[in-house]
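User: Can you model how 7TS sits in this protein?
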Amino acid sequence: MTDLRSLRSDFPILSRSINGHPLVYLDSAATTQKPVAVLDAMEAYYRTSNANVHRGAHTLAAEATELYEGARSKVARFIGADPAQTVFTRGTTTAINHIAYGWGLDRLKQGDRILVTIAEHHANIVPWQIIARHTGAELVYLELTDDYTVDIGELESVIDDRIKIVSFSGMSNVTGALGPIDVLSQAARSVDALVVLDAAQLVPHQPVDVNQIDVDFLAFSSHKMLGPTGIGAMWGKPERLEEMEPTEGGGEMINIVERHTSTWAPVPHKFEAGTPPIAEAVGFGAAVDYLDAIGMDVIAAHERDLTTYALEKLSEIPDLRVYGPKDATKRGGAVSFELADIHAHDIATILDQDGIAVRAGHHCARPLMKYLGVPATARASFYLYNVPEEVDALAEGLLKARQIFGLS
Ligand code: 7TS
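Assistant: Here's the modeled complex, given as structure tokens:
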């Protein structure tokens, strides 16, 4: 297993204890912990260069602008993109809302269809439902196969020229399954549909290069990849970003404002109304620098090994059912499970007593929960700072939960 354990000392929070036990943080799919490099970059910005961006002639304003735009270049480079096509947003949710409103609202009409999968996060369902309600378009779903991957066998019967947008996740935050990016984008192209990739769980965990995949838009969040909350990115093909309307108006996003009309600033600023999250951008830039220095290939290999180990350990626990692919090459490190008929919240509470942080609930994927026939699952999720001993602690905690509930 790729040994990244020396990195743990870069993350101050990992040395704290919870309920008298060392923290075992297995909730990185929800949000990740932050290395000193990110915390320092944000603090240094506030201590030495704090000013508003893009509008001042003074030195601090120039420094802040350089830091903000420098962060954009780093984030763009991280996904092989041009900074001019990389828009800072509040996160994945805001990015998908920009696309739904800015691209979909004017173009969709009655009879049109938006294709998603049943495994989507609410962030990739609800904006489309709202746009469907406004335009009369309809949301249609691809379902899953027995190994919890998207059932691409259904595509033939679903894909026709009513489909205008195909929007899906690169990796499920519940099942961990990787999305069939090439298959779905090819299917979309066969009917000239727009392709939107929710990469909230993909960009943090695997190398992603926008030149290697055929999508129109890609969305991801800083806080799921060691950076701060409050910022993320929307990458788009230049022609798509040009033709797309801004969804928020205000300062920073305009060229000329008259009494009754305005013209827009060039992309990406057209989509960044108001004072942006400057310190957060700086932190996001520091996070991608940190990930780059380790190498996304190394991180992906580490997580694959850890996930393989976790699936093995969990398979030894009686009455435990994993909702996700068994094959580690088809998945990432978000592992959802159910243990006998113990409620997921009880599992999370029992594990927390031993300092183990897992998530329990519907994971913002209610249609998926309904499809799986469960009210909730418990979910352990891994990142570069996790080690096999933490998987062992999880397995021991789950055996303890069995005992507490009288299961031998
Ligand atoms: N898409 C996926 C696949 C996600 O996992 C999430 C967040 C989002 C979109 C939304 O990202 P945001 O940064 O805009 O909130 N997922 C989770 C999770 O699994 N637990 O908490 C948040």
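A couple of observations from the model: The first strand starts at residue 17 and ends at 18. The radius of gyration is 22 Å.
User: Helpful, thanks.
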